[in-house]
């Protein structure tokens, strides 16, 4: 069993990002503006763009990125099937290392997604 918690990772990184926002405000404002511009609905929806961001996070093997983009996808109502299909493309394009991080993204989703009651 892995001790990695994506909830904890995103919480810890959020705290560190708050410090960066305080101590490097211009840089962080610029990054936030870029993220907002890149992710807003256009020809591609915000959800589609977040799926792309998840794919990049997986292939770049960024734990915090995986956590933040899974969290955003849950907020946007992405289905498990949409996430799994995205992870399949990641595996195709990134090979074995992407497959290992696709598994990490599954763990992040299962940790962060609302639990459905069983009948």
Automatic annotation (TrEMBL):
Pfam families: CMD (PF02627). Keywords: Oxidoreductase, Peroxidase. This is Alkylhydroperoxidase. The keyword Oxidoreductase applies. The keyword Thylakoid does not apply. GO terms for molecular function: peroxiredoxin activity. Residues 25-107 form the Carboxymuconolactone decarboxylase-like domain. It comes from the Bacteria. InterPro entries: AhpD-like, AhpD_core, CMD-like.
């Amino acid at each position: 069993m892995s001790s990695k918690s994506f909830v904890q990772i995103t919480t810890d990184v959020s705290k560190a990002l708050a410090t960066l926002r305080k101590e490097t405000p211009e840089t962080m404002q610029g990054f936030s503006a870029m993220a907002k511009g890149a992710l807003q609905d256009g020809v591609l929806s915000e959800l589609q763009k977040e799926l792309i961001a998840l794919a990049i996070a997986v292939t770049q093997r960024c734990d915090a990125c995986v956590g933040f983009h899974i969290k955003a996808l849950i907020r946007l109502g992405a289905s498990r099937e949409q996430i799994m299909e995205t992870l399949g493309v990641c595996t195709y394009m990134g090979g074995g290392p992407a497959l290992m991080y696709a598994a990490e993204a599954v763990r992040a989703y299962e940790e962060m997604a609302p639990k459905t009651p069983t009948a």
